[in-house]
Write a structure and sequence with these properties.
Length: 215
């Protein structure tokens, strides 16, 4: 990568649940003059904690992570630290993912298979212009999109769907969310009705396709 002088370092926090991926991204960014990776997170909750304590310039995060996912973390950070530029680095390139990320506060999106020089381009662009979308993603945005999971389900239903897709029983879900098992069952029935799905396998497939859980 070409090194470019910068008046002040751009402070970056990385978030990805795969150590090898984070190490690779950090190594590439270390070649860019004026960009400093100051911390790394393995999930959305850890990312929020780091942003609270370090107040970085840029967050570069995956979407699909265990526990709190990237979208939820982005929404929280955008609300509490709107000045932080949030850049999604994902393996998912569907319009649904991109629009969900942007709707929750992301200002940039690029793919994990992007050429290395694009990392520098993305970081500098979100700092200079407030946004960056790789050519491949920009092309996707021109295509018509299907309804997002947020269009189809309430926040509580999304929470329950994720746990159902992870194989949790109604009692486990009820305990984790502070609900009664009967309430969880009612939510599950409504989720199936709204999505027009008839079994747990179909719900799980939907959750994978929408990026709510990893395949």
């Amino acid at each position: 990568m070409k090194k470019t002088a910068a008046a002040a370092p751009i402070r970056v926090v990385l978030a990805d649940d795969h150590d090898l991926v984070r190490s690779g991204i950090k190594a590439l960014l270390s070649l860019v003059e004026g960009v400093d990776v100051i911390a790394e997170a393995r999930d959305g909750k850890e990312l929020i904690t780091l942003v609270e304590s370090l107040n970085p310039d840029v967050v570069m995060t995956d979407i699909s992570m265990p526990g709190m996912d990237g979208i939820t973390a982005i929404a929280h950070i955008h609300e509490t630290h709107p000045e932080v530029r949030m850049l999604v680095l994902s393996m998912y390139d569907t319009v649904d993912f991109v629009k969900r990320a942007v709707a929750n506060g992301a200002c940039g999106y690029l793919m994990k298979d992007a050429p290395p020089f694009e990392l520098e381009q993305a970081v500098r662009s979100v700092m200079a212009t407030g946004s960056y979308f790789s050519p491949a993603i920009a092309q996707r945005l021109l295509q018509p999109s299907e309804p997002t999971v947020d269009d189809e389900l309430t926040h509580r239903q999304v929470e329950i769907l994720k746990l159902i897709a992870q194989g949790r029983a109604s009692k486990e879900i009820a305990f984790e969310l502070g609900l009664s098992p009967k309430t969880v069952d009612v939510h599950r029935a409504r989720i199936m009705e709204r999505l027009r799905l008839n079994d747990i396998a179909s719900l799980t497939l939907y959750a994978v396709r929408k990026g709510l859980i990893k395949p």
